[in-house]
Amino acid sequence: QVTLVESGGGLVQAGGSLRLSCAASGSFFSINAMGWYRKAPGKQRELVALVTSGGHTNYADSVKGRFTISRDNAKNTVYLQMNSLKPDDTAVYYCNVDGDRSDGTYYGSAWGQGTQVTVSS
User: Fold this and answer.
1) pLDDT tens across 1-57, in order?
2) Are 111 and 94 in contact (CB under 8 A)?
3) How confident is the model at residue 93 (pLDDT cuts 50, 70, 90)?
4) Which residue of 23, 67, 109, 119 has the fewest C-beta atoms within 10 A of its own C-beta?
């Protein structure tokens, strides 16, 4: 069983910043990637940013230049630094971790409970 604990969400004015954290613990032998998704009212869940075990990153076009994903391997933690926040960034943000078992087979993905980010105009 894998558990993801998210924190850092809250209310902020447009132009402000927040930093989300997600700490992973449990039965993953190795982590392939960690990332953030979000679900805004009336919209589908979308990928915001991810970082692979090799350090490669990927961002949604809407957040490029404003958000930065990073990881602390020693703590199995992924962060999302969000700057220049806009009202359109308002959503529930979910952490996701993808990993393998000790025998090399794919374990699957785990999801956090979600943390609310609200940006006021």
Assistant:
1) 788 999 999 999 999 999 999 998 876 678 899 999 999 999 999 999 999 988 999
2) yes
3) very high
4) 109
pLDDT in the model for residue 81:
98
Exposure on the CB side of residue 118, measured as CA atoms within 13 A = 4
CA pair distance 94, 118, nearest whole angstrom: 14
Instruction: Find how far residue 50's CA is from the centre of its chain.
Output: 7
The string of DSSP letters for the chain reads -EEEEEE--EEEETT--EEEEEEEEES-SEEEEEEEEEE-TTS--EEEEEEETTS-EEE-GGGTTTEEEEEEGGGTEEEEEE-S--GGG-EEEEEEEEEE-TTS-EEEEEE---EEEEEE-
Dist CA 56 CA 82 (whole Å): 18
Tokens (6 digits) for 88:
């359109």
